[in-house]
Write a structure and sequence with these properties.
Blueprint: E1 4-9, H1 14-24, E2 29-35, H2 47-50, E3 60-61, H3 64-69, E4 73-76, H4 80-93, E5 96-99, H5 106-115, E6 120-123, H6 129-144, E7 150-157, H7 167-180, H8 184-187, E8 188-189, E9 204-210, E10 216-224, E11 227-235, H9 239-252, E12 258-260, H10 262-266
Parallel strand pairs: 1-2, 1-4, 2-3, 4-5, 5-6, 6-12, 7-9, 8-9
Antiparallel strand pairs: 7-10, 10-11
Helix pairs in contact: 1-9, 4-5, 6-7
The protein binds NADPH dihydro-nicotinamide-adenine-dinucleotide phosphate and the ligand O=C(O)C1=N[C@H](C(=O)O)C[C@H](O)C1.
NADPH dihydro-nicotinamide-adenine-dinucleotide phosphate is lined by residues 9-10, 12-16, 35-37, 40, 64, 77-79, 82, 100-103, 124-127, 167, 241.
Amino acid sequence: MNDLRIAIMGAEGRMGQQLVRAVAASEGCVVAGATERPGSVAVGKDIGVLAGLGPMGVNVSDNAEAVIAASDAILDFTAPAATLKFADMAACGGIVHVIGTTGFSQEDEAKIRAAAERARIIKAGNMSLGVNLLTAVTRRVSAALDMDFDIEIVEMHHRHKVDAPSGTALMLAHAAADGRGVSLEDTAVRVRDGHTGPRAKGAIGMQSLRGGSVVGDHTVILAGEGERIELTHRAEDRSIFARGAVKAALWGRDKAPGLYSMIDVLGL
Ligand SMILES: NC(=O)C1=CN([C@@H]2O[C@H](COP(=O)(O)OP(=O)(O)OC[C@H]3O[C@@H](n4cnc5c(N)ncnc54)[C@H](OP(=O)(O)O)[C@@H]3O)[C@@H](O)[C@H]2O)C=CC1
Ligand SMILES: O=C(O)C1=N[C@H](C(=O)O)C[C@H](O)C1
């Protein structure tokens, strides 16, 4: 089988550079292209040099459409508006679109579902093995405990993160709600301030902390009368997300069009 031709969108970003290194280190795929937005100082530069690997002979382009047309798969950890455009382009070619971007609105999510009628989209707020295992565990633990256990999810990220709660916190909250057989839309509490009154029974709370260089910490707290369970994942290095994204692209190459998650990729 030919090597999978992978393009990295937003190649100069924190995740973009990790993705270049992860593809270069993986078997069965090659870096076939890279993009940044028009006007970026990275445009025209060799992507290998930008990622600290030495020349790779692939330059950063500002023409996403041409790059996507020449690829079998794209790895996209950019921003919601950019990802929606890339999803339309990936759907035209029916290629694999790995979406790590977070911070989508409900309307954005509907557009991604529509694109998945033609593209093979693998989307997850967190591509690491550890967090996806934690998601599966959260679903099971929530199913085992009754509503007397209050669920709160606490996340902390670096000072540059622009969306809250994190995509991972939302994944974990959905898993907790699924485990309980309730809808997250009906139970989520994303902000508390002032005279809030007592906690509503069955609420699923989310709290976001921002500071320094924290890669990503998530804790699911299940607090009952006289006891408390805390399930924690700490990301120490962004390479865990990049490795997951490459695995997802390779997994997706022989799948039918549709919207998949890392839980599907990892078989959890
Ligand atoms: N699912 C997962 O496992 C993970 C998800 N993430 C998510 O990935 C996203 C990116 O995170 P991070 O790398 O830290 O952010 P960065 O801001 O470092 O990187 C994003 C990159 O995308 C670029 N970009 C934005 N719009 C476009 C466009 N239209 N065309 C091409 N490039 C574009 C940005 O360029 P510019 O600076 O010019 O805007 C930037 O280089 C976030 O949503 C984050 O939450 C992060 C880690 C893991
Ligand atoms: O922006 C980040 O950095 C991260 N974003 C993802 C999220 O929103 O959960 C994944 C990871 O926690 C790092």
